[in-house]
Design brief:
Helix content: under 10%
Number of strands: 18
CATH class of the largest domain: Mainly Beta
Distance between the termini: 6 Å
Number of domains: 2
Strand content: over 45%
């Protein structure tokens, strides 16, 4: 018999923003459980924005690598550069974005998508007052890189200058993220489930990261990210 364990981030009510440290391991839920995924729309997954213009897209697929004793089974592939607009460093596609509350330590496990061509990762904040490059990202093995952001609250963008970069893990400290919670004082009369690409699911039985949309008795509604693990 299959048991469904519902892990919803709705246990407590919080207002404003919470400062957190987070690691996104693309081999672990909610990323690494499925087959190949193409991100054709911009998605925000557990606080990490995976940005695309719908034409130049990210993809997630299986690939085995190891670094510092950690084994990875999946990678997030940019498939190319971030294509910033003319006279701007802000990317228009193939970017990752996080929101930080201030100084932040960012660690990335990544490699070039090409064994012989090294890549450069561009890091820029919202108003382009901070800009940094991580150079010589090789493709012969998986490498770890660290960037120290020093400054006030902002959004940080990460994208390849040219050519593909494969991400295996991404972590950052001092993140700023809002938290949505279910209103315990209202009665839920219906709920619907959507996958991370925005397609409605017949039910929640397939598991993984889903968007749960609830409708309350008073006619209002709200949406929440929910992770459903299936244990056999």
């Amino acid at each position: 018999m299959k048991k469904i364990l519902l892990l919803a981030l709705v246990a407590i009510s919080l207002n404003g923003f919470a400062q957190t440290t987070k690691t996104w391991n693309f081999s672990e839920a909610p990323f690494g459980e499925g087959t190949t995924i193409d991100f054709t729309t911009t998605q925000v997954i557990d606080g990490l924005t995976i940005g695309t213009d719908g034409e130049k897209t990210f993809s997630l697929d299986a690939n085995n690598k190891s670094l510092d004793g950690i084994s990875y089974t999946h990678r997030l592939k940019t498939g190319g550069g971030g294509s910033p607009k003319e006279d701007s460093k802000i990317p228009t596609t193939r970017y990752l974005k996080i929101d930080v509350a201030g100084n932040s330590t960012i660690n990335i496990a990544m490699m070039s998508s090409n064994k012989t061509d090294a890549r450069t990762l561009i890091i820029v904040n919202t108003d382009e007052t901070v800009s940094h490059e991580i150079t010589d990202i090789k493709g012969d093995a998986l490498y770890g890189f660290t960037y120290e952001y020093e400054g006030g609250p902002t959004s940080l963008y990460f994208y390849s200058q040219s050519g593909g970069i494969n991400y295996y893990s991404f972590s950052a400290s001092n993140l700023s993220s809002s938290v949505n919670t279910v209103n315990a004082n209202k009665t839920i009369i219906s709920e619907r489930y959507f996958d991370i690409l925005g397609c409605e699911m017949p039910d929640s039985s397939q598991g993984g990261l889903v968007i749960r949309k609830v409708t309350y008795e008073d006619g209002t509604s709200a949406s929440f990210k929910t992770y459903i693990r299936r244990n056999k």
